[in-house]
Amino acid sequence: MFNKNENVIAVVDNATGEIAATFDSQGKSPVRVKFTPDGKRALVVHGESRELSVFDAAKRRLLTAIKLAESPKVITLSSDGRRAFLTNPSAHKMTVIDLTANRVLDTFPVGKTPDGIVWSDHWQK
C-alpha cells in the first residue's frame, strides 16, 4: 500500500487510476511534478529543501538538483522546455531556471504570496 508520507514519487496509470510504480525522491517530500514537453525529464519541486530535482523520466533516475534561494511551490515550463518558472509564495517571489544549463537565471518579486503560474505562447492585448 502506498503511504502518502513516504518520500517517493508515484507513477499513476491513467487508465486504471492505480499506482504503477514508485521511485525514490532522494529523501525529500515532493510538492509538485512537471514533465518537460518532450516527456524525457520530470521536474520535482521540493519546498522544504529549496531545490528543483530533475529526473530522467524513463529511467526514474536523478539527473541533477538545482539549489534555490527560496522555497518553491508551483512550477510551469516554457513550451520549448528550456525554462522553468517557479513560485516562491513565502518570499513573494518567482524564480526562473535555465534547464539547458541547469541553473537559476533570476529570482524577483512578483507580489504577495504567488500561488499559481502558467506559460502561454500567445499573448493578446
Walk me through what this model shows.
With 125 residues, this protein is an all-beta fold. Helices cover 0% and strands 45% of the residues. The protein is built from no helices and 10 strands. The protein has strands spanning 8-12, 19-24, 32-35, 41-46, 51-56, 61-67, 75-77, 83-88, 93-98, 103-109. The strands form 3 sheets. It has a 4-stranded antiparallel sheet, with no helix packed on it.
In spatial order, strands of the major sheet run 3-4-5-6
Helix amount: under 10%
Overall pLDDT metric: 86
Low-confidence stretches: none
Give me the CATH architecture of one domain, please.
Answer: Beta Barrel
Query: Structural class, please?
Result: mainly beta
Per the principal axes of the C-alpha atoms, what is the gross shape?
globular
Order of helices and strands: EEEEEEEEEE
Strand content: 35-45%
* Number of helices, where a helix is a run of at least 4 consecutive DSSP H or I residues: 0
CATH topology of one domain: Thrombin, subunit H
Distance between the termini: 50 Å
Key words describing this protein structure:
125 residues, mainly beta, Thrombin, subunit H, 4-stranded antiparallel β-sheet, 0% helix
Topology readout:
Elements: E1 8-12, E2 19-24, E3 32-35, E4 41-46, E5 51-56, E6 61-67, E7 75-77, E8 83-88, E9 93-98, E10 103-109
Antiparallel strand pairs: 1-2, 3-4, 4-5, 5-6, 7-8, 8-9, 9-10
A few lines on this structure:
This protein is mainly beta.
